[in-house]
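Model the whole thing, not chain by chain.
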Amino acid sequence: MPTIRDIARQSGYSVSTVSRVLNHQKYVSKPAQQAVEKVIKALDYVPNSLARDLSFGQNKNIGVVLPHNDHPYFNQLLNGIMDAAFTSGYHIVLLPSEYNQTVELDYLEQLKRKNFSALIFTSHGLPLSVLAQYAQYGQIVCCEDTGDYHLSAVYSNREPAYLAAFKHLATLKVRQIAILLSRNLEQSPTSSAIMAAYQQVFHHKPAEKLVIGGMTSFNDGYQAAKTLHARQSDIDCFFTNGDDIATGVRQYYLDQGLTSPLLFGQENQLSSFLLQFPTIDHHFFTVGQKAFEVALSTEHQKFSFESELIVPK
Amino acid sequence: MPTIRDIARQSGYSVSTVSRVLNHQKYVSKPAQQAVEKVIKALDYVPNSLARDLSFGQNKNIGVVLPHNDHPYFNQLLNGIMDAAFTSGYHIVLLPSEYNQTVELDYLEQLKRKNFSALIFTSHGLPLSVLAQYAQYGQIVCCEDTGDYHLSAVYSNREPAYLAAFKHLATLKVRQIAILLSRNLEQSPTSSAIMAAYQQVFHHKPAEKLVIGGMTSFNDGYQAAKTLHARQSDIDCFFTNGDDIATGVRQYYLDQGLTSPLLFGQENQLSSFLLQFPTIDHHFFTVGQKAFEVALSTEHQKFSFESELIVPK
DNA sequence: ATGAAAGCGCTAACAT
DNA sequence: ATGTTAGCGCTTTCAT
């Protein structure tokens, strides 16, 4: 592989002139430019990215930490991020965490080593205080409210929509509400927000035996319906963490020859539209786009979008 | 940020000794090692990845070119790739192509620039002959049969399963078969394989007006059913490119109060299991895992797995 | 076991 | 407008 020095030698110009040509800078005469470009073409030369990155002090890779599961939350977020990255010249590096703190810490160390110029956490097991310690080494964007921590945040403000959702259900005189969550009960801010909204509307906590976590798919919804229906047969509503999960619930009831309880989805996927049940759109695609944008900036920023309650007429 | 030279200076040892400590090499005395490690800890030093990569001549990034759409094919493949990459020390870089040849060419150029140490093409718009020209710059793995080209290949051998599928349908005395494809008709080897298998079984080509491409979702299936049913009302079977797409077809018929035609899926997703229609499992997760493995190797290799016909009893 | 020094290939400040 | 050269931070021969 020829280097910039080979081009310099063979063109009769210096390394810096070649560099100028490569980077389309000013102060290169037409003849110089042409001579250099001719040799470049002749030797089939391309500049080495590794050398460039070292010289520049950073590369153009943005790491995206995600638990590596298939929940639509991550898909939509990732699609938004990729969409924004597409024309930016930056690359998205997938960093699966499996919610493992050791792994997450390793990614933070890599940020410090300049293996990435920024990091986006779509979720994290590590406490925010730890993430904050690494913000000095590069932009760190969290897809949740980071409170007072010196960490950028781009997220969806869910509380109002959850509140509106439960008020809507209260209107419908629903009595026994099952709640399906993504992760295990207390772990995530999202779960807390749901529980808080529920309590605010109904003035009591959700029955523990009607709450299940770990839902990521249609099938999970199906199984959860089975389990919960066995526990309590008069459930008249399922508040779920995804339209497809709600659809799984419905399928179970239909397969049993029962009428489906009231369904409530999230993510505004196709199924809630087709089956005409209410859902919440958290605008994750938009969040992803913005998260990427912030990742490129050098300042700490906080943005929130409003989750949107969608009720079919 | 301290550099290796700072560590050398402050520890009283040379740069090379520090380097040896960092890389756990032989020929470092206990006292030297301890002295160096102490300073490393004191200065909170970590080696710079960019410098390492330049010195080593390559980085640990594997680019994965994919069209950036949501078809389960790419998800499953990507999941397999990520699964294999997880413990490897290598990173997966997402390279959306939108089937754009210019974009794909740019990724190949980046391979040449050593921005990636290998490239996996889950799909490509560029001809194989062009890809082959870049194989000299790094391992290139295609997820399809690459014939005689000097390109690694890891893919699923679909023909036999397609043949078996149509034979199965012939057994059922199906007459009017609609065919739903991923991309537009002639573009992909997959489409050709389907058409060839069809013709071999039924001794004539599929009716052109019963073939539609561009299917990626439930909704696409729904719309396609609508369109095709309007064109011809006696379709008695839909051979689709995905279980969820087949499910969309079914939904349309049900919504019209009609009985669903026979469905045939692909990808062996949950829906074919729940609704008990036949499907084909192309084992993309496994293909992805293997593709990654080959990406790390320096030799050109070809692997194929057998697609599997799955018929519920 | 340890160190000196020559790369790796490019950028950019400085000089002319 | 063009050239010289000192980095960028690490790895790796080659001496000692």
